[in-house]
Amino acid sequence: MILLRLYFEFFKTGLFAFGGAIATIPFLSDMAERTGWFTQALLADMLAVSESTPGPIGVNTATYVGYTVAGIPGGIVATLGLVTPSLIIIMIVAAFLKAFRSNKYVNQVFYGIRPASVGLIASAGITVLRLCLLDSAAYAASGRLLDLISIKGLVLFALIWLLTNRVKLTKKLHPIAFVLFSAAVGIVFKFAGA
C-alpha cells in the first residue's frame, strides 16, 4: 500500500510541476506536511544534495524520499511516479507534433502555463530562502525575534552573492566551485559545533 501511495504522490508532483525541477519544490513542501515522510529541514538538505549531485532535483529527491520510506522498491516506485507523467505527455506531444505546432489554442495554453511556471519557481525560491535564512525552531525555543534569523545562513548567502556578483576574480568561476565551497563551510560549521 505504501508503494502505491508513493507512486501516486510523486505522480501528482510530476503531473503538475511545470517549469522544471525547481517547480517541484512547492509540491514537495506540501507533501512533507501531508505525509510526514520528511520534514521541511530535511527537504532543504535534500535540495542541497540534489543540487550538488548529477541528475535532476526532482528525480534525486523522489528517489531519496522513496528509499527512506520503503527501501529500494520505494526509491524505484517514487522515481517512476515522478517521471511517468512527463513520459506520457512527451509521447502524446510527439504523436501530434505537427498539429500542435500550428494550433493557436495550444499556443494559448502554453502562453497561460508560462506565468504559472514562473509562479511555481518563485514560490520554490521563497521556500528555499525561508528554509535557509530563517530558523523557526530556534525562535520557537527562545521566543526572541533575533533567533528567527539564521546568522550562518545569512552570512553564507551574502558571501556567495558577493563572490558571484561583485568580486571580479570569482565572478566567472563555475557554479560547482561555489557548491563545493558551501559544502566545505557546512562541514566546518558542523565540526565546529556552530
Report on the architecture of this protein:
With 194 residues, the chain is mainly α. Helices cover 81% and strands 0% of the residues. Helix 1 packs across helix 4 and helix 3 packs across helix 4. The chain is globular, with a radius of gyration of 19 Å. The model has no long low-confidence stretch (mean pLDDT 86).
Q: Could you list the spans in which at least 5 consecutive residues all have pLDDT below 50?
A: none
Average of pLDDT? 86
What's the total number of strands? 0
Sequence of secondary-structure elements: HHHHHHHHHH
> Fraction of residues in helices?
over 70%
What share of residues are in beta strands?
under 5%
* Structural class based on helices, strands and sheet pairing: mainly alpha
Give the key terms:
mainly alpha, about 0% strand, globular, about 80% helix, about 190 residues, 10 helices, single chain
Give a concise summary:
The chain is mostly helical. 81% of the residues lie in helices and 0% in strands.
What topology emerges from the helices and strands here?
Blueprint: H1 2-16, H2 25-35, H3 40-51, H4 57-95, H5 97-102, H6 104-133, H7 136-142, H8 151-165, H9 168-171, H10 175-192
Helix pairs in contact: 1-4, 3-4
